[in-house]
Amino acid sequence: MKTRTVSMILTFLLIAGAGIPAVAVAAVPMPIPAEPLMMVTMERPPDLTDTDFQKLQISPRHSNMELMPGESDEITVTVTNKDNVTISLDPKVVDQPYSEYVFDEDWITITPASAELGPDDEVEFTISVSIPDDAERGHYGLQVAFTEDVMPTPYPSPYPMYLNALDLFISVWSPPVIQIQPSYIYDRVESGKEYDYTVNLKNIGEDAIEINPKLGGERFYGYAMGMAQAFEDDAITIDAPPVVPAGGTATVTLHLSVPEGSKGRYEGGLDLDINDPSVDEWNGMIHLSFEVWTQPTEPFVKTFAVEIAEPITIEITSQQYRHYTCGGESGGSKDEEPSFDVTLKKTSGDDVTLTRTMAAYAGSVNLGGSDCIPPWEIDSSGMYDESRTSYVERYTADGTVGELELGILPRYAEGFEYTITIGDAG
Question: Which CATH number fits domain 178-293: 3.40.50.150, 3.40.50.620, 2.60.120.560, 2.60.40.10?
Answer without folding.
Answer: 2.60.40.10
